[in-house]
Amino acid sequence: MYDIRCLKELLGREVSTELLFVHAFTGCDSTSRIYGIAKKTLFQKLIKPDSLIRASAVIFTTVDQDVSTIIDSGSQVFVSLFGGKAGTSLTNLRNTLLAKKVSSAKSFVKPEKLPPTVSTAKFHSQRSFYQIMVWMKKDGNMDPKDWGWKREDDILLPVMTDQKPAPDRLLKVIHCNCTTGCCNTRCSCRKFGFPCTSACGPCQTESCYNPYNLQQTFSLMRMMITFLLWFEPLDRQTT
Ligand SMILES: [Zn+2]
Ligand SMILES: [Zn+2]
Ligand SMILES: [Zn+2]
User: Fold this and answer.
1) Does position 44 have pLDDT exceeding 80, yes or no?
2) Which ligand has the minimum distance to the alpha carbon of residue 199?
3) Which region holds residue 165: left if phi is over 0, alpha if psi is between -120 and 50, else beta?
4) Cα 98 from chain centroid?
5) What are phi and psi of 97, to 5 degrees?
6) What is the arithmetic mean of pLDDT over 171-192?
7) Which residues surround ligand 1, an ion (CB under 5 A)?
8) What is the CA(165)–ligand 3 centre distance, in A?
9) What does each C-alpha distance from 97 to 85, 112, 172, 228 come to in angstroms?
């Protein structure tokens, strides 16, 4: 626990403003918390001081920033929080950490333990900056829809990502589009030992005789394989 008044005196006005950055970026009422990263991790980096985090805190607490500046800076904050070297891309760090975790894991690797995707990080950084501007009463010219929010039925909702869960190529491999009830191994689901799901084609509105539908355990396997395949294109990018 920290006493805010004491901290303010101790840290001076500049760092006090930068605390807004720590609070917004690590999660507050209107921005998401980062799985597995405590508030104090970023706070300690700020007061250490870690030069990259200090620079980011200044960027996030300065009015009239470009969206691209906020996205780039936020991405480097994530890299730092997840232990990557400055200048590493978030995608590469995510890929490296996945490989490390998979090789040493005794059980299923939880995807939420990895750094966020570039797309998720982008919207998180935008919302954090917007929130800070609201606190500083400098949001007059800002539209939340430009800063990670969307309006649905007159309610503002956070945009979590603008990417599909997996590339089309992989989604096609794992879902079938059979019109003949998935009776033989021309059904890609059946061929790979997967049950059909709502993502499959006509068989889900008519009839489906895929025997794997009865074996629930395969759903978990599908999830794991989807997850592992998902990273295959990233792996190629880095080599
Ligand atoms: Zn099928
Ligand atoms: Zn199917
Ligand atoms: Zn089917």
Assistant:
1) yes
2) 2
3) alpha
4) 14
5) -65, -35
6) 83
7) 176, 178, 182, 187, 189
8) 21
9) 13, 12, 27, 13
Give the tokens for residue 170.
């992989």
Instruction: Say how many Å lie between the CA of residue 200 and the centre of ligand 2.
Output: 5
CA 177–ligand 1 middle distance (angstroms): 6
Using CB atoms within 10 Å of the CB of residue 189, give its burial: 0 to 12 exposed, 13 to 18 middle, 19+ buried: buried
Q: How confident is the model at residue 111 (pLDDT cuts 50, 70, 90)?
A: confident
**Distance (Å) from CA 203 to ligand 3 centroid:** 5
* Predicted TM-score (pTM) of this structure: 0.70
pLDDT at 220: 53
Spell out the residues 6+ positions from residue 22 whose beta carbon is closer than 8 angstroms to its own: 39, 42, 43, 46, 57
191 C-alpha to ligand 3 centroid (Å): 11
Read off the pLDDT band of 151 (50, 70, 90).
Answer: very high
Task: Using the Cα atoms of residue 46, residue 51, residue 53 and residue 57 in order, give the sign of their dihedral.
Answer: positive
CA of 88 to the centre of ligand 2 (A): 39
Measured from the alpha carbon of residue 211, the closest ligand is: 3
How far does residue 233's CA lie from ligand 1's centre (Å)?
26
Nearest to 57 by CA among 21, 13, 24: 21
Work out the mean pLDDT of the chain and round it to a whole number.
85
* 142 CA → ligand 2 middle, Å: 46
Q: How far is the CA of 107 from the centre of ligand 3 (A)?
A: 30
